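Re: that backbone. Tokens:
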């Protein structure tokens, strides 16, 4: 086996893959792989400008990944990021969306690795924020 040089490595690793994915309701869709840069941009979509996790955007993960991968007959994206964030895929039947999303997670490598586990944990933590203890509730030692 030959070790690849810089240019050969970049050429070999920058090719897009395309898949035909059957839908639960019949028919197929065409999907493409995502680049490292696209994956990074997708992860950034779940952050507020201050860097904190945005649970409202986290709820859109399925739709964002589907929108980032589905292409038309000329391999152009079917939906823009803005369309997806505005709800273009919100009415998709979950019997179609869930299996499509799960397949795309596997094919693109955007699965529950440490980054997504952290996002999911942040989403769960944001739903159940503990109530702070007031000073009147705290006990003091009697001297």
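Recovered sequence:
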């Amino acid at each position: 086996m030959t070790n690849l040089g810089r240019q050969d490595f970049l050429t070999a690793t920058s090719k897009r893959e395309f898949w035909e994915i059957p839908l639960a309701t019949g028919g197929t869709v065409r999907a493409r792989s995502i680049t490292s840069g696209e994956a990074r941009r997708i992860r950034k979509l779940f952050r507020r400008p201050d860097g904190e996790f945005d649970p409202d955007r986290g709820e859109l993960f399925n739709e964002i990944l589907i929108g980032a991968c589905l292409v038309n007959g000329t391999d152009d994206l079917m939906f823009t990021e803005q369309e997806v964030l505005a709800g273009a895929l919100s009415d998709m039947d979950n019997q179609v969306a869930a299996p499509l999303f799960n397949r795309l997670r596997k094919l693109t490598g955007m699965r529950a690795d440490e980054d997504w586990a952290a996002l999911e944990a942040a989403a769960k933590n944001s739903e159940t924020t503990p109530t702070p203890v007031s000073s009147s509730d705290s006990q003091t030692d009697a001297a």
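The domain at 16-117 is CATH 3.30.2220.20 (rbstp2171). The chain has seven helices and three strands.
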